Amino acid sequence: MLYPGESPRVYRALFNIFPPYLFGGVRVKHIADDWTSVRVTYTVRPWNRNNPNRAAFGGTLYSMTDPFFGIMAYGQLGRGYRVWNTVGNIEFIAPGRGTVTATMELPPQQVDAIREATRDGSKSITDHSADIVDADGNLVARASQKLYARRLQS
Predict the structure, then answer these.
(1) Quick one: CA dihedral 109, 115, 119, 121, positive or negative?
(2) Which residues make Cβ contacts (< 8 Å) with residue 111, sequence separation at least 6?
(3) How far apart, in whole angstroms, are the C-alpha atoms of residue 129 and residue 19?
(4) Taking the model in full, what pTM does it have?
(5) 75: part of which helix (H) or strand (E)?
(6) What is the DSSP letter of 79?
(7) Phi and psi at residue 93, in whole multiples of 5°?
(8) Distance (Å, whole) CA 88 – CA 84
(9) Would you write out the chain's pLDDT as a tens digit for each of its 154 residues?
């Protein structure tokens, strides 16, 4: 089982051999060493696209963002926290073709706010979103999540 403090490179490598990502055409291209950003791509090919419109499969588009805000928060907060997504949503804007990219960011200031909100044992629920764009920078979809965090009792 992986814990915060593990190398982001280890997480990246494991995600890239995770069967749903590997066979779905999803690749984790970058996880920042300080857990503040993640970049993921999905190359739409004949065997992983949505027929009959020959565009990106919607479930795969959402999967590009699903675990990463939680992982970035967990990586920055450390073992003393419980973190997970409580709500996820995706808005499809245009058909995704070719290679699409999602870049997620979780700045240290947002994580500091989570730490402060949970200092007394309270929960924190924060909103996060990521745009999924095609190779020309056109918006394909916007994924959003509510991230739950709470300090574990010691």
Answers:
(1) positive
(2) 73, 76, 77
(3) 25
(4) 0.91
(5) helix 68-77
(6) T
(7) -105, -45
(8) 11
(9) 445 457 899 999 999 999 999 999 999 999 999 999 999 999 999 888 887 888 999 999 999 999 999 999 999 998 889 999 999 999 999 999 999 999 999 999 999 999 999 999 999 999 999 999 999 999 999 999 999 999 998 6
Interhelix angle 108-118/68-77, rounded to 10 degrees, is 70
* Residue type for position 77: L
User: To 10 degrees, what angle do helices 8-17 and 68-77 make?
Assistant: 160
Taking alpha carbons only, the member of 70, 50, 72 closest to residue 60 is: 50
- The secondary structure element, H or E, covering residue 21 is helix 19-24
Pairing of strands 81-92, 99-105: unpaired
